[in-house]
Known about the structure:
CATH topology of the domain at 2-172 and 252-264 in chain B: Diaminopimelate Epimerase, Chain A, domain 1
Shape of chain A: flat
Oligomer: heterodimer
Mean pLDDT of chain A: 83
Largest sheet of chain A: 10 strands, mixed
Amino acid sequence: MADQITNYQCPACTGPLHFASGTGKLECDYCGSTFEIAEIEALYAEKEAAAAEASARAEEEAARETEWETVSGSDWGADAENMRAYVCPSCGAELICEATTAATSCPYCGNPTVVPGQFAGALKPDFVIPFKLDKKAAVAALKNHYRKNPFLPRAFSAANHIEEIKGVYVPFWLFDATVDATATYHATNFTTHREGDYRVTTTMHYNVQRGGTAQFQKVPADASSKMPDEYMDSIEPYDFSELKPFSTAYLPGYLADKYDVSAKESGQRIDSRCKKTAGDLLREDVHGYATVNQSRLQAQVRHGKVHYALLPVWLLTTRWNGKTYLFAMNGQTRKFAGALPSSKGRFWALTGILTAVCSALIGFSGLAMALAKFIFA
Amino acid sequence: MKRWTVFLSVLVLLICCCLPVCAAETEDAFPYICDTELLLTDSEWISLEELAEQISRQYQCAVYFVTVDDYTYYGDGSIYEVAKEIYLTYDLGWGTEKSGVLLLLSMAERDYTLIAYGYGNTAFTDYGKDYLSEQFLDDFADDDWAGGCRDYLTTCGSLLKQARAGNPLDITSRIRTWHLVLISLILGFAVALVICLFWQASAKKAVKRSAEAGHYLTQGGVQITQRDDCYSHTTQTRTKIEKSSGSSGGTTVDRQGFSGKSGKF
Lengths: 377, 265
């Protein structure tokens, strides 16, 4: 059951290497040496070829040896389908991970490890956006997120400790699409004039039609069922000009999953997002009218290329009053998302303060007097 | 018969009106109570005339009460226009300002108008005129002419007294400080609650599914290929303009310097 995993080691001291978001290089935790991604990739390509040969020889020898008779214990059952076991190349411990895990760290020695097989063949991502922001930036963003919410219970931010922070390369499908859309609107313009005691409104009605094409490139859809879509959507957009060809060398130090939601499944959401945007663009082109109501929208999506990419996300979890709160930060742009609890006490306290301010403004502005005159008239 | 009635009415009015003109130029020579319809008994007339004179003198603002058969015989336009014409033609009012208030009853269609001029405009605000009308209209509706006239005069007296004290009865007179505080608090609370609810809702909506893909449009990737705007038809609606019942206080004065209100009793 055990499988081979890669642990990038420092060529100078054999310490574990991790990807440093600040420099964009692989850094040694022990001697501090830094290496270019390409340099390490070339080194490990050679090593992997040698290891494959050695592995084949070892398997042949093992086949010739007699085996111990084992009594099988309780079976993993159906769970086994979703589990994988790997051997840590640093300490030899067996790591049991979910089937979709592609990069993790050893719980015994802490070594960052990558499972290259998860990204082999058709599963290999086309692109990756390396982490640009580190853990400190994620913690700072969380604190800033707290500050922005005046309804947050004081106890939450004071007693709350971050339970877990993890940098995750989340699998995304990036869709290219073209939408051909036509829409019909009922639009009006009106003029009013006075005739004696009557106000006469003359309304001109128009049938308006718009048609056009909208081209979309790399519309992202989260391809991991473990990641809540609303969180991943909320931290969009990514700057795709910084996409790099995929290399496992960007993964050490972070977690990474392979996709478990197919492009076809994700594509339905992308279709509706693109259609909605195309409809909005056509509507924006209708101007010069007092009212515009859409009566029909027809949109046809022409599907283009789909790319598979890993995008950087910082995930933070906290617990408060027995409930887990999840936050996500875009590891490239710092965009932060996460729902916070709301304190009723703070809500009413803030309402009270605002009531005092608004009442004073209303009183001094003469609005209260105008309203009083209206009431007493 | 009607002609005779009209003739007699005009004659009485002219006699009444001519008296002060012919008299020495005393401001109070015009009868304050000019009852051409003879709705009042002699004793009622005398007592009401004395009361009107006393109020006019005390507050230096003439208070008139005039009854006619049909106002249309005395001028063109509405009863309000006719009352103004009478006021100007017979040079009514007190002092150089020609201050005064005049209540004209036209018995034919049971119309009335209440006009004010000079200081009368200050003392009898729009709201004051409404209040004054409420005091006498129920009496006139019951054909209690002397009672209605007395209520009119006494109310004029109290309104003039208030005005001379520097606090004419206006819509604002009814508004107390606690009214303003209460209104400010209620309105302030409503505004604050809306702001806080909106704020809280937007904080909760920080995590939501995206419904559009505008960020991912390619440069120059939007092409509008069809633009048809066709005129279809025209419709017309007519809405009656409702006169606003609300008042912002004060007195609405016309170009001739009069203010007033009219109605039926």
